[in-house]
Amino acid sequence: MNDKIAVYPGTFDPITNGHHDLIKRGSALFDELIVGIADSKRKGPLFTLDERIELSAEILKEFDNVRVVGFDVLLADFATKMHAKVILRGLRAVSDFEYEFQLASMNRHLIPNIETMFLTPAEQFSFISSSLIKEIAMLDGDVSEFAHPIVQQALKDKFKKV
């Protein structure tokens, strides 16, 4: 198996235009890009794992070489199971670097045959985070610049229930 497979892991709670930007660019670099959606119960996500998978899969269906897969195991084990050669990570700001560097170093120790690659988002997405989008949406703010219309509707629906 010589395919260049990468895993782009995260909670994607919810998927943002910044995530989409990285996925678009990452999909051009690899034969297959697997968007690995972590269960992350400890983070207390707004959307269930199934909801996050469904939202992401719908938004990313335009990419022939992108697959959305949920996981609830160690990233090292998930990446190995997916036959990945690379773990793709996004760096929005210098403040992300220290944490991401630690993760990359730990993953290099756990899975030395899988590299970590960092991409920075396009400038207009560098400040977007799922947390900020959720907070804006919860307070009935406009998130149309930051999230796909499907995500905007899902946020509206979710906060109506709260």
Helical percentage: 40-55%
Structural class: alpha/beta
Described by the principal axes of the CA atoms, the overall outline is globular
Number of helices: 6
Oligomer: single chain
Low-confidence stretches: none
Strand content: 15-25%
Distance N terminus to C terminus? 47 Å
**How many strands, which pairing sense, and closed or not: the largest β-sheet?**
5 strands, parallel
Mean pLDDT: 93
Order of helices and strands: EHEHEHEHEHH
| Rg calculated over all Cα atoms | 15 Å
GO molecular function: ATP binding; pantetheine-phosphate adenylyltransferase activity
Pathway: Cofactor biosynthesis; coenzyme A biosynthesis; CoA from (R)-pantothenate: step 4/5
GO biological process, one term: coenzyme A biosynthetic process
Pfam families: CTP_transf_like (PF01467)
Strand and helix map with partners:
Layout: E1 5-10, H1 17-27, E2 32-38, H2 49-59, E3 66-71, H3 75-81, E4 86-90, H4 94-110, E5 115-119, H5 130-138, H6 149-161
Explain what you see.
This protein is α/β, with parallel strands linked by helices. Helix content is 42%, strand content 18%. It is built from six helices and five strands; from the N terminus they run βαβαβαβαβαα. The chain has helices spanning 17-27, 49-59, 75-81, 94-110, 130-138, 149-161; strands at 5-10, 32-38, 66-71, 86-90, 115-119. It has a five-stranded parallel β-sheet, sandwiched between helices. The radius of gyration is 15 Å and the shape is globular. The relative contact order is 0.20. Reversibly transfers an adenylyl group from ATP to 4'-phosphopantetheine, yielding dephospho-CoA (dPCoA) and pyrophosphate. One of its GO terms (molecular function) is ATP binding. The record marks 19 as: Transition state stabilizer. It is found in: Cytoplasm. Substrate binds at residues 11, 43, 75, 89.
